[in-house]
Amino acid sequence: MIVDVHTHVFPEEVRKNVSKYRKRDPLFRLLFGSEWSKTLGESKKVAMIGVEELIAAMDESGVDKSVVCGFAWSDQGLCRDGNDYILESIKRYPDRLIGFVSIRLNDSGDTVKEIERCVGLGAKGVGEIVTEAHGVDIDDEKVMAPVVEASKSLNIPIMVHANETVGHYYVGKAKTVLRQYYNFILSWPDVDIIMAHWGGGLLFYELMPEVARACERVYYDTAASIFLYSANVYPSAVQIIGADKILFGTDYPLIDQRRYLKQIENSGLSKGDMEKIYGENARRVLRL
Question: What is the pLDDT of residue 122?
């Protein structure tokens, strides 16, 4: 089984009215504005899809299941609208899709209610959390406690956006430093955390024994890897953290799922390690 743990879909209302939503949300304006066009090329000016397009891509790529995330809207109403679309989508495709909950971090009461509502209707995780979109820090325990406590009580994982703070610039590259992600992990050792995009390089610090111990319930997805690292990241990561902690993720539609599969299959990993990365680990983390 191949499980893509990191994809994004948008409701038709958003896809058809991009200009309207650019005005409503600063992160959306940044990611789907003119700079994004320059990064991906004019043909991919608006890199967003609906659920039907995701299913079609999965069929072409041979991906069995995908985790669908929404967007880190700064408005709770927009988060709820996106969640409703995801809940409708997983109801339509229960054997293919796994829903994650989009949340606004600044209102703990509404945030917890929204997590509980969505999980009650079939969602299996929270995220992708992008703290910069809400003007908060990932290691702010007052802000993050309600999210983590709700996830713990519901026995679901949390997906956190992370990116490396060195190397080339790209639109949406956040400024949060690794120490803040590590502080967050240290504060919440008893919840499963999926660090997106290889955790911004945090996995390499698991060569330090104390970091490895702290990150026992931390998993790393491969989303956007093709933009960030050479193919050597796969055998290097397996050597450092083991194949059990790596989750296949693409950030689709940012990059075609087939490109990842080809890169991984040519990376020199054993068949057993690839099976863990492709799906076995996700089955365990997502309680499939």
Answer: 98
